[in-house]
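debug: dumping io for the single-chain case to check the tokenizer round-trip. Nothing else runs in this session.
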Amino acid sequence: MKTTKILSIIFGTLIFFAVVLSVFANPRILYLPFTDLEVFLKHGWYYDEQETDEHKGIDYFKGQSGNWQEFEILAAAGGVAEYRPNGSPTWGNYVVIDHQTGSPSYYTVYAHLESSPLPAYTPTAVNEGDLIGIAGATGFTDPPGTVHLHLEWSKDGIGQFGTKLDPYGIKKYYTYYPGYPNFIDCGIDLQNPGVFWWTECPPVPPGGGGDDPLPVINVSGTISEDTTWEAGYVYLIQGSVTVVENVTLTLEPGVIVKFQNTSSHFNIYGNLYAQGTQQNKIHFTSYKDDTVGGDSNGDGNNSSPAPKDWRQITVFENGSADLSHAVLRYGGYTCTYCYINPGGLLVDGGQLTLADSLIEKNNYGIYRRTSGNVSVTQSSIKENTSYGIYHTGTGTTTATSNWWGDASGPYHPQNNPNGQGDRVSNNVEFSSWLIEDPFWKQFIFPKK
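debug: decoded output
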């Protein structure tokens, strides 16, 4: 019995060290090859068994079509790097890093570089995060002159002399991005030693970074348990969606919510928690808005968004909505014979906290009805066809350190075709409002 226990301990120890050695022999962590927050993934890795149409790499871009910009490129993992100027008709100037893993050997290639601080054709030790080049457009790019980084993973060599690896383990013909249905994960695959997975998801612009729209998830009815909506999808509100009391709906950074038509609206009796980031804002917008999430309704250019395309998000008594780095546009539909007020955000007894956000092109931007509390901080409220913030009933509405009007200056009522422009009702309390225009102050700070 004692002998068996000792053998078991020895066997377990051997297994532990085998796993440890396997992990160290096969590095499993890739860091993003940049720190610039404006860089995003535009073209994914796709695979064709017939090898007639492939892209066995990942392309990163900064800027926009016609004005792609250079950015610094960092080593995704440590090893021995070599800069090869004009090293390939396809790759142009590129850096290859041998990650010194023994057998099998693993490599990264950073192609189309404008330049590199590394000495040419000289093996140089680098650490993860070291500067190895500047993105450029050398070699073959389509169209010519397209500045970007083409990154490849491979083992036992590079190019035709090695095996190119999909860092997400997807062996199928498909261009994919984080959030697409066949996108597996951005973490480490503990079940498959030697498979390289990122420490964080590559960032993508709204719409997935390509011409294809994001997948659409239709939503209607009641949300009766804590729920999280993930980025990479368009959540299409059909009819009404109700979050019941004591339930929280959480929207991750980058989530896109579209409303199908004038009957589409959110009822918040529980909690709506939508905390975006500067680079991954959360959008609430019209089904016709193709600027985020792509052409979700599939009608090409046959429709365009406008104020009143959808109803509103209503925060009822005991409910709360906590939004930051959010964009809300094209809401505020109203009708004569139904219980609707024309605010993209309607507060009817609940609590609204809005920060670092954009409220634009609605009927009313924020409508505080009957009771409840509204706090708006460091946000931009502009181009709403009626009031930007409208306050009635009891409770408080405060607006602190916000920007009012167009980005180029105040949005004057007389410059709006309907003669109203962006106004604020007289009951709103202001401090540090970022405007000094005398004409506009008559609406924001009315005389006693």
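debug: round-trip ok. The radius of gyration is 27 Å.
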